[in-house]
Amino acid sequence: MDKNGYIFFDTLISLVLVINFVFMMIPLINLINFERDFLQEKMNISSLLHDELQNIIMQENFNEDITIKKMRNEKEIFLKFSLFEKDYIKACATWISHQDRNEEVCLYGKN
Q1: What is the CATH classification number for the domain harbouring 35?
Q2: Positive or negative, the Cα torsion across 14, 20, 24, 29?
Q3: Tens digit of pLDDT for each residue in 66-85?
Q4: What is the rounded CA–CA span in Å between residue 61 and residue 63?
């Protein structure tokens, strides 16, 4: 009994499945890496904002809005500090992400 046609067909289907799997995984891996980089950037900026907020909190009398421009990894980051409900300081960082979207993260600290 000749099974060469069946083996060839079975091998061809297996090859098509493997190729489809590989071509599906490449964009997914790229998307995961892209999002990981974005979250890493957001975490670094949040850390910078936290450090600057701590410096502002250490000042005795905070009563006026402050805007600071920082450069980090060739990105302009604007840090804005303002009074929020008398006892709190609102600190927001805004920047343009690598997707060319305006991003913002805010933290609050007790004055």
Answers
A1: 3.30.1300
A2: positive
A3: 899 999 888 899 999 998 88
A4: 6
